[in-house]
Design brief:
single chain, 27 helices, mainly alpha, 440 residues, globular
């Protein structure tokens, strides 16, 4: 039976690890969760806000106990979002009677007499998937003979509409290679092209990092990293931050060289392959001149500018210097501290980057609830730009200091719960060795 002190230590470690995992590569996430002892892993799975990719990896590599705790975690939301139809609801659907005559005319027979063949199913999905997943789901509710290999081959030959791909992800138990193949498409742009990618992450079929590795063309990946506000299915704020982290990790070889970023923007509109291949070709200088020169368009230009290295900080005016200094001085209460930080953000004196660099302790800087206030849903922060900027800066600091070394990430995880300094100070102490105490 653990003591009260041991229980508090496990809870605090789980809380800190949950924040670190939002910025770590997939292999580091898997390594770190395996290093946690039983109580800390229990609290991580059961009580913490977990990123979508972290939940996917825990479900994929964890045991039955981990899955049970995750299923009971009220903070694991957005799989699917409350109010949106999910797999269980879609599984109960029945094909409406008014659709059957249309399908009968297209097939030349009654679709209820015998199961649809793979070729018939693909033909119907091609014709009825351009207006979202509703009609394809009705088609998939009919008896049919799924053939994942033929489905993938036909999709790679001529991509299926986005609505049909989303429907297949929802109700078909497709193997991982088929799921990744359905996301790797060069289909013409549709209004709902982003929905299969969002749905695949939300259902736990792929992580953000896997999505970046397989989505094609490259411009779609860049747009997913900074998806504009849409009325349809879209990223939640934590999902958007996770996608931004994965895309920026793929863009890291470009560094801060403006020439390479300009080349990326010039070639991205017409490049048919995934983003990592485009970045590798840009950095190696092996890209041929595009045969079909396309303009990037305002949305792609805005996405690349958002993902590029941040511009210089605002000038050091007196009010701003005082605001930066205040991040290191605790207020009389947490509520007063939150009000002050929010007021400085509203007046433009601070940014999310400043909070990550200067707020202490480091574990509070990584948790936006400690400087924006707690919310009952992770997509309801009213300062999304500050949250995304803070995530991007934390990603940059972790990448520069820790890279992809699991041991270094674990040292930070062990140090973070009791460290009283800022995040840059913590990373400097951990990477240089020696004492990591931030206390006087």
């Amino acid at each position: 039976m653990p003591t009260a002190e041991e229980d508090r230590t496990s809870r605090r470690l789980a809380w800190c690890v949950a924040h670190l995992l939002r910025h770590a590569p997939d292999h580091v996430v898997t390594d770190m969760t395996r290093r946690l002892d039983g109580p800390a892993l229990k609290y991580l799975c059961r009580d913490e806000w977990l990123a979508a990719s972290t939940v996917t990896l825990l479900l994929r590599h964890g045991g039955a106990t981990d899955r049970t705790y995750i299923a009971r975690n009220p903070r694991v939301v957005g799989r699917p979002l409350p109010g949106l139809p999910g797999p269980a609801r879609y599984a109960r659907r029945r094909t409406p009677p008014e659709l059957l005559p249309v399908l009968q005319a297209e097939l030349g027979r009654d679709p209820g007499e015998e199961p649809l063949t793979a070729a018939e199913l693909i033909g119907l999905l091609r014709r009825h998937g351009r207006r979202g997943p509703r009609v394809p789901l009705d088609i998939l509710a009919l008896r049919h003979r799924p053939d994942p290999e033929l489905l993938l081959a036909e999709h790679l030959r001529r991509p299926l509409p986005a609505g049909s791909v989303e429907a297949l992800l929802l109700v078909e138990g497709l193997p991982p290679q088929t799921v990744r193949g359905l996301l790797a498409t060069t289909a013409a742009d549709e209004r709902s092209w982003h929905r299969p990618a969002v749905r695949a992450v939300r259902m736990g079929r792929v992580t953000h990092e896997e999505l970046v590795a397989h989505v094609a063309p490259a411009r779609h990946t860049l747009l997913l990293g900074h998806l504009p506000a849409l009325r349809s299915l879209r990223w939640t704020l934590p999902e958007q931050a996770g996608m931004q982290t994965a895309v920026m990790r793929a863009l890291r070889p470009l560094g801060d060289d403006p020439r390479l970023w300009a080349e990326l923007l010039r070639h991205a509109p017409g490049h048919p392959g995934p983003l990592p291949a485009l970045v590798a070709a840009v950095t190696d200088g092996t890209l041929p001149e595009p045969a079909d020169v396309r303009e990037p368009g305002p949305e792609l230009t805005r996405a690349v500018r958002h993902l590029a290295p941040a511009a210089a900080e605002p000038p050091g005016e007196v009010e701003r210097e005082l605001a930066l200094a205040s991040l290191a001085v605790p207020m009389d209460s947490v509520e007063e501290d939150i009000r002050w930080v929010r007021d400085c953000l509203d007046r433009g004196l601070l940014t999310g980057i400043d909070v990550i660099r200067h707020k202490l302790p480091a574990c509070w800087a990584l948790d936006e609830d400690h400087w924006l206030g707690e919310v009952d849903h992770p997509d309801r922060h009213d300062h999304p730009e500050a949250v995304l900027a803070a995530h991007a800066e934390a990603d940059r600091l972790f990448a520069a200091a820790l890279g992809e070394d699991p041991d270094a990430w674990w040292r930070v995880a062990r140090t973070l719960p009791d460290f009283a300094g800022t995040l840059p100070h913590l990373l400097l102490r951990v990477t240089e060795g020696g004492s990591v105490s931030g206390r006087s």
